[in-house]
Amino acid sequence: MASTAQSIVDGTTAVTRAEHAGAFGACRALLRRDFVLAWRRRGELFLPLLYAVIVAALFPFALGPDPVLLARIAGGVLLVIVVLAMLPALESMFRTDLEDGTLEQWLLAPQPLALLALTRVIAHWLTTVLPLIVVMPLLGVLLNLPMKVLPVLVMALLLATPLLVLLGSVLSALTAGARRSGILMALMLLPLAVPVVIFAAGAIAAAQSGMPFIAPLTWLAAALILAIVLAPLACAAALRIAVES
Amino acid sequence: MSRSYLPHWIHWLGSPPNFYRFAGALRPWLMAAALVSAAVGLYGGLVLAPPDYQQGDAYRIIFIHVPSAWMSLFIYATMAVAGLIALVWRVKLAEVVAMECAPTGAAFTFITLATGSLWGKPMWGTWWTWDARLTSELVLLFLYLGVIGLYNAFEDRRRGARAASLLALVGIVNLPIVHYSVQWWNTLHQGTTVDLFGKSSIAPLMLWPLLMMALATHLYFFASILGRARTGLLSLESGKQWVRALVGGQPPQTTEAPT
Questions:
Q1: Which residue among B70, B165, B178, B196 is least enclosed by CB atoms within 10 Å?
Q2: What ipTM was predicted for this assembly?
C-alpha cells in the first residue's frame, strides 16, 4: 500500500519503478506457487517418466533385440518419446488457471502478461520435463546408445525441450478455452515440432557417426533464443483470447 | 474521434449485409471466368502442349499439380492476412473469411499431395518419399487441419475464429523454418522451373497453359471464398434483422433480435 501511495505522489517514473520491482516478486511468487502445487501432486510427475520407460522398453520387443539396430534408432526413438511424453502435460498448462479464475487475475495484474507466461513456461519445464531428461541417458543405455553420444543426447534435449514447451505454451493457451482437445494438441504441435526434432536428431546422429555435432546444436540454441523472445508474446495474446468471452 | 485512413467503400464492404449482396453479385462472374480459363488452360495443356522429351505425356499432371501447390501457399497467406485483420481490428467479416479459407486451402494441399504422389510413381518409382518439398507440403496440410480443428473446438465461434487466426499466424512464422530445415535435412524434388520475373526453364507452349490454370484456380478460390463467406455470415448473423428480412420466413420484428 505504501509503495502504491508513494508512486502516485512521485508520478509515472515511480509507478514504472514500483511495477518493475513488483514484476520480479510476482515471478518469484508464481514459481513458488507452481512448485508447491507440483510437489503436492508429485505422484502425477512420475506418469510421463513411466510412459517413457514403457515405450522405450516396447521397442526391443517390436524390433528384436539386435544391439546394432537398436543403437542405430535409439537417438530418434528417445527424441520422439520425449515429445510424446510431454504432450499430455502441455495440454493442461493453463486449463485449471482458466477454470478457477487465476488467468483473469493475471490479466488484471500490473506485471506484463508475457512475463507471467514465461514464468509459467519455466516452472512447467522444471517440474515436468527436467525429470524426463534425467531419465533419458538410462533409456539410452537400455537401447544400446553408445556412451559417447549420451552427453550430446542430453545437450540436445536441454535445448530442444524448452523450445517445445515455449511453442506448446502458445498452443496450450489457445486450447485453454476450448472443449477437451487431446488429439488437437498433437495435431497443432507436431508441425511446429518438425524443425526441432530434425535438428536435435541431427545432432545425435552426427555424434553417433563421429561427425561434428555443434552446428545443429547452435541452430537449436538460436531458435530457443528467438522463441524465448517471441513465444511469450504470442502466448499472452492467446491467453487474452481464452479469457475474454 | 480519430480520422479514418481507409477509403469509405472498405467500411461499406465490411458490413455483413453489404458484403452479402456484393459477394452474391460478384460470385457467378468469377465462377464463370474460372470455368472458362480452366477449360482454355486444360485444352492448352492436354492437347496443344507438346509431350516432354523425357517424361512423355506423364508430365501433363503438372497443369493440376503446380497450380494447386501455388494455391496451397497463396490461400495460407490469405488466411493469415485475414486472421491478422481479425485479431487487430476485430472485423467480423475478416474472421469469417479467414476461417472459410482453411477448408479450401486444405483441399488444394491435399490435391497437391495426391497428384504429386501419382506423378512420383512413374517418375521417381515411388508413391512417397521424405523429400523436403513433400514434407513441407505435408506439414502445411497439418497446419490447415490444426486451424480447422481449433476453430471447431470452441462453442463460441467468434472466439474460435480468433484463436485459430492466431494459430495461422504462428504457422506462417513456422512455415519458412520448416521449409529450410527439411531442405537441409533431405531433398530430391526438382528445383523451381517457373520464374515470373526471370527466365523460366520451361517451354513457352507448356508455360501459358500452366499460367492459365493458375489464373483459373485463383478465380475459383475467390468465387468459392465469396460463396463460403456468404453462408458463414448468414449462420453467424442468423439472429439479426437483415437475415430475417432476407429469409422472409417471419415478419420483421420490432424488438431487437437476440444475438
A1: B196
A2: 0.81
